[in-house]
Each structure stands twice: as C-alpha cells, then as structure tokens.
Amino acid sequence: MSKEYLWLPFTQMKDYEQDPLIIKEGEGVKLTDIYGKEYYDGYSSLWVNVHGHKKQEIDQAIKDQLDSIAHSTLLGASNVPATLLAEKLIALSPTNLKRVFYSDSGAEAIEIALKMAFQYWYNQGNGKKTKFVTFTNGYHGDTVGAISVGAVDLFHKIYNPLMFNSLKVPFPDAYRHPSGNGGEAMKDSLQALRDTFENHHKEIAGLIMESKIQGAGGMKIMPEGFYKEVERLCREYNVLLIVDEVATGFGRTGKMFAVEHENIKPDIMTVAKGITGGYLPIAATLTTEKVHQAFYDDYTKLKTLFHGHSYTGNQLGCAAALANLELFEKENIVDSVRKKAEVLSETLQPIEQLPHTGDVRQLGFMVGIELVKDKQTKESFPFEDRIAYQTTLTMRKNGMLSRPLGDTLIFMPPLCASEQEVKEMTAIIHQSIEETIFNKSEMS
Ligand SMILES: *Cc1c(COP(=O)(O)O)cnc(C)c1O
Domain 60-330 belongs to what topology? Predict the structure, then answer.
C-alpha cells in the first residue's frame, strides 16, 4: 500500500519501490520497522529528535495537554502552552530577541522572517529595501520563498523560474576553496559580501544565513571569526541579520543556539526541528522589540503582519516543546552534547583515514563525511555512482538509518545517544563505507 498510495518527500519513488521501509515503533535511539528489524536512528528522524523516542516526560506532557484541549487558533487569541513556551524561548535566546511568531515548520518560519524583514522597512516608508542576500550552498527549506534564498543547486536550480532573485555571496568553503584554506576562503567571501553591500545596500532588506554551519549544503562549518564579521557588516550597512537556527538550535552544536559560538545578536532568528524534541511540528520566528514596533499601530494604518497558518501555536506541540525544554535543564543536555562530541570526534578519526574519505566535518552532534574518488585531487565519484546513497543502503542493512547529501554521509544522532551508542553507530558507518566501496571496485 505504501508503494501504491504514497508520494514521499525528497524521494524518487522508483528508489523507494525497490525496498520500501515502513517504521512502526521507536524507543530511545532505535527505530523498528513493520518486520521487526531494528535500526539506529542515525539522522534523528531527519535532525529533529533530541531525547530519543518514547521519552516518558514528553509522552506524558502531551497526554496531560489532551485532557485540556488539543488545538485552538492563535489568530487574534492565545493559549496557555504557547504563551509559556514563548517566555521560555525568549529566556533562552540572545538577549535582544523579545517576540515570538509561531508557525509549523522551518520553511514557514523562514517565509515569515522574509516577510517580516521586508515589511519592517516598508512600514517605515522605505519601499526600496526589498532584496535578500544569501550564501551559496545555503538551505532554508522547500517553500518558494525559502528556495528563493536557498542555493543548493541540486535542489533549487529546477525551480529557478518560480523564484524571486536574491543576491548570492560565496560561502567560505575551506575544503573546496582553491587554497584549501579556511582563512583564504573567508577573506574572499567577506570581500564579496562587502562589495555586494557597498553596491546594493539601499535595496537590501536583510541577509539570511544558517547559523555557524550549513546543514543541508553538506555540513560546512564557517571559519572562526567569519560569523562575527558578517554581523558587523550587516550593522555597518543597515541590513537586517536573519539567522536560521532550524537545524542548529536546541543543543545540536554543543550550544543551546549556534549563535553562541560567536556571540551573535540576530535581528530575526528562526527555530524549528529540535524545538519539540522531535515530536510535533512547531516552529517560531523570533525578533527584537524594534522590529515588532515597526508593525505596532492602529489597524487602519495596515501595518499588521498578514501571515498565519491554521495550526500555528498548536497546544499539543507547545506542551511537548515545554517538556522538551524542561528536560534540557534537568538532564543538562547541552553540556553532555559537548562532552560526547569529543568522544564522537575520536571515533571519527579512523573513518577520516579511509582512502575515500575526503573530508570529515563536525560541529557538536552534526557530522558530514564527504566521500571522494581521489583523496589527493579531491575528485568526486561520478554522479551516477550515487556513492553516499549506496553507502546509506549498506548502513540500513547493517542496522542504521541516515540520508546523505550529495556525496556527503550525514551522521546526526539523537542528542541523548550515549558514548557507547555513538561508538556503535560510527562503527556501522565505518564498516558500511568499506563494504560499499569494496563491492563497487569488485564489480567494476
Ligand atoms: C530543515 C531546515 C529548514 C526547513 O525546515 P522544515 O521544518 O523542514 O521546513 C530550514 N532551514 C534549515 C537550516 C534546515 O536545516
């Protein structure tokens, strides 16, 4: 039936049909399919899971909330858990952020951020600042606004005729820069950004960027100091800084939010994925009181942010998020991720030594392992080989699920994964890379 009725996201159904996977249960860091085979959840159910599956405290919070109400609208009204969660988010996020605008997915949080930034200027009588700056290889979700500020060619190129134009600046990619050097990549990138601002700042509403690390672009980490300098240039040229913490927020990088790595104070910040511990779809766009004040006036002035979704602020989701954040305190999650990330880093070293591992990139519990045909020249495998995809199929056979990004294997364990579990998962990755590449060379 899954082959007959479903059309899965980001999936070539011809691939899926070969060997369909249907998950039935989850517990801790493991998932079980309908045939009873167990897998490590090596991608945190697409980067969302925090405390594992069937976490008692979150389960209970949702059950308790059901005894009051499942959902009422946030349009023109509030509810109890959405209010409590907003207070909590403001307390955890950078001190300049004061307002929470809810939605249901990361992409929606981005759409809201873009409309908010555009209208911030418009409401003040500046109709010229309408453009956005973004970094090459950036990813902000799949809706049309979000892809317009996205720049992963594989996902985005096809839809070009549908998109609005954004100004693209090269991301400082240390591994792929001709110099192979982060410092040089950063210098080029900052120069390009300065030029873009210098030539266009009067038309630029905001700059949007992922926070400290590009996720879907293949786990690319910014060289130290880059983030801070981008922030400084935004201030200098009067451009709103929009930071996308959808993937990085809630402990993933070893800080509660990745802005903390360089003490960044964004004007607008988006959060989603880990916010409910991976349970329910809640997202939020956080901003400053200054931005909010540009919308605050008599209704007839038409300064309202005309945006909302049916299920925004859903009580079950907000209750799950509150329970999730309580667990962060109670179980000291952020510190534990930082410690376990060191162990993870050690266990990745043998993988780094493999003949076809080009680059291993890690920030906290976000890992990308880029496979290359030639380690010296960094030449990629042929596109048709789908080398990372094939490796994830081997991983699946060996008891772990993940999804690759291009030729980069992704490892994003739930934050609760113990040192032992992390070691077992990296062992599966190691073995699967060797098996896949060995079989391939046997065949050819
Ligand atoms: C996943 C992701 C999004 C989109 O979030 P969805 O909930 O999948 O819409 C946006 N930005 C970043 C950085 C992401 O990783």
Answer: Aspartate Aminotransferase; domain 2 (3.40.640)
